[in-house]
User: Which sequence fits this backbone?
């Protein structure tokens, strides 16, 4: 009884600290204010996602369509997954800093690590999604006189879309969460609240950062789920959302 | 660019940190496997519990590691629990999903045949379904181990007594000393790749009937 009460008391202290942190107007203005940090986080995530997508999507679609290089791609993706993000940031920092002492030390290394982080899920899901499309359908499309480009654009991509989107979603959520590491290296984004909060032993700040990052990650997750539903052709919707297939593929392709 | 004499002077510390890295990883994956195996068996036998378990593990997985370490400091202080609890929690989603998928992948005919031979449901689970689920279970252990090796580097933010090889990356950064950053970054990548390869080998050895696939993947 007493123990429960003490635990409840601790939770209240935590919630109070959290509420006080969010309520303080000083935390909503300036370069370390919530709007600025949130914007930085979204912008850095978006840039990483765009670059990773521009590389991995065409490559994955091509591999899935032609069946060429699938083994190489999956092994490269596994290698990419194996590299710890913090190690990659550290590895890149001295090199990019040689080109640009400011951004090269604080921002570029994290961006590079986030791009490498996002490549494997996008690549693996795009290629697996396309190559899993029923070959009879592809043959039928060819028989109807479609060119290879049209087969890809009108048959394979629409059918594979739930799996492709699951890859993008997984990459997006991982980026939003992992980008926080950049703050250890003086970069922008919501990770600053975590790093500063640990350093200053400020519980309200730490949990404020946790809540903001988790909310952003859930938003990305939910956004892609909605996008997936909106873009999935109606006849395919009934056949159990692409999520499960996408997730199962992730595990299997990597195994 | 690399100060080799610094490296030579710090080989002892390097060995200590490599061992610490492996130890933190092994404890997390070991404990995570025990918990996941129990939850997965429960899920396979009682289907209704699987969606909530999978959803909860999935939510835990989306919490950024830095955030979870930071949040736990206020609860468990600077103890090893602050490092291990998040590491264990992050393995759950990978392991549970793969173990359940492993059991689900057992062909229905095989299960029927085992039933026809008079296996009880537990006997079937252990002696027929489990061996067939091994490839996906090992695949899960492989993903979990590699991802944990990456996360261990981040435990260095809790305090200098953790972090494994991540300790060198963090201190090297604060001192703006490239050599020390590399002494942490390069071995941690090698460690992850080595463990990855070791699991591929293990999988090939444990499932000789899948030899052709193993060759194609390796």
Assistant:
């Amino acid at each position: 009884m007493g123990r429960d009460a003490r635990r409840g008391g601790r939770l209240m202290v935590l919630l109070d600290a959290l509420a006080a942190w969010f309520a303080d107007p000083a935390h909503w203005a300036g370069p370390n204010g919530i709007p600025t940090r949130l914007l930085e986080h979204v912008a850095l995530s978006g840039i990483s996602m765009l670059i990773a997508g521009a590389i991995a999507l065409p490559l994955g679609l091509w591999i899935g369509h032609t069946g060429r290089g699938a083994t190489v791609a999956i092994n490269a993706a596994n290698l990419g997954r194996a590299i710890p993000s913090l190690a990659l940031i550290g590895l890149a920092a001295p090199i990019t800093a040689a080109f640009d002492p400011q951004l090269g030390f604080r921002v570029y290394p994290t961006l590079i690590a986030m791009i490498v982080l996002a490549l494997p899920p996008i690549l693996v899901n795009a290629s697996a999604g396309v190559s899993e499309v029923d070959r009879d359908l592809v043959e039928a499309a060819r028989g109807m006189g479609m060119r290879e480009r049209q087969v890809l654009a009108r048959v394979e991509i629409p059918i594979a879309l739930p799996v492709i989107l699951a890859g993008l979603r997984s990459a997006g959520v991982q980026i939003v969460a992992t980008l926080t590491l950049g703050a250890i290296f003086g970069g922008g984004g919501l990770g600053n609240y975590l790093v500063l909060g640990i350093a200053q032993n400020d519980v309200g700040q730490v949990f404020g950062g946790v809540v903001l990052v988790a909310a952003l990650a859930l938003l990305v997750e939910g956004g892609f789920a909605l996008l997936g539903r909106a873009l999935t052709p109606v006849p395919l919707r009934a056949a159990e959302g692409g999520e499960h297939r996408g997730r199962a593929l992730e595990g299997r392709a990597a195994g | 660019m690399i100060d080799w004499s610094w490296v030579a002077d710090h080989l002892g510390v390097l060995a200590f940190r490599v061992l610490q890295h492996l130890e933190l990883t092994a404890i997390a994956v070991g404990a995570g496997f025990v918990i996941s195996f129990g939850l997965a068996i429960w899920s396979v036998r009682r289907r209704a519990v699987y969606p909530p378990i999978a959803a909860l593990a999935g939510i835990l997985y989306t919490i950024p590691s830095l955030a979870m370490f930071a949040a736990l400091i206020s609860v468990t202080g600077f103890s090893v629990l602050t490092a291990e609890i998040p590491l264990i929690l992050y393995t759950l989603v990978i392991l549970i999903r793969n173990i359940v998928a492993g059991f689900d992948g057992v062909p229905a005919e095989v299960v029927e045949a085992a039933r026809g031979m008079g296996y009880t449901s537990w006997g079937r689970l252990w002696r027929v379904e489990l061996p067939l689920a091994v490839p996906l279970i090992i695949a899960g252990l492989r993903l979990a181990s590699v991802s944990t090796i990456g996360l261990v580097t981040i435990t260095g933010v809790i305090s200098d007594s953790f972090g494994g090889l991540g300790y060198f990356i963090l201190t090297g950064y604060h001192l703006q000393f490239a050599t020390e950053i590399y002494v942490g970054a390069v071995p941690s990548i090698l460690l992850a790749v080595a463990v990855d390869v070791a699991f591929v080998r293990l999988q090939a050895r444990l499932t000789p009937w899948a030899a052709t696939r193993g060759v194609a993947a390796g």
